[in-house]
Amino acid sequence: MSGRRSRSKQSSVSRITDEQIADLVSKLQQLIPELRRRRFDQVSSSKVLQETCNYIRSLHREVDDLSDRLSMLLASTDSDSDQAAIIRSLLM
């Protein structure tokens, strides 16, 4: 029982208030380009979180695409050249 009590005390100490959640959602809304355009429109928290996930996914796809393009560029250059060294440093 004491383990259960200590966990319950710990979780109540680290609880985030509704006001803090609203503030974090507002900050997220300001960071996401799709939502930044709707700055003064009311957007639900779930919409902000959904758009945030979509934005992160699109950034992952963009990183993967750029990494693939750099890999192809590296494969087409002389491996001992300065250009190849720069490309390798970007891939790391």
Give a written overview of the molecule.
- It is a single chain.
- This protein has helices at 2-13, 18-31, 33-36, 45-75, 82-91.
- It is mainly α.
- It has one domain (18-91).
- The mean pLDDT is 83.
Please summarize what this structure is:
With 92 residues, the chain is an all-alpha fold.
Main sheet record: none
**Structural class given helices, strands, pairing?**
mainly alpha
Radius of gyration: 22 Å
Number of H/I helices: 5
Task: Please count the beta strands (DSSP E, at least 2 residues each).
Answer: 0
State the domain count.
1
The outline comes out as: elongated
H-E order: HHHHH
Q: Into which percentage range does the β-strand content fall?
A: under 5%
Uncertain residue segments:
none
Mean pLDDT, rounded to whole units? 83
Q: Tell me the distance between the termini.
A: 49 Å
The percent range for helix content is over 70%
Organism: Hibiscus syriacus (Rose of Sharon)
Domain BHLH: 5-59
Pfam families: bHLH_ILI
GO molecular function: protein dimerization activity
Question: Which features does this protein show?
Answer:
single chain; 92 residues; mainly alpha; 5 helices; 0% strand; elongated; protein dimerization activity; PRE; Transcription factor ILI6
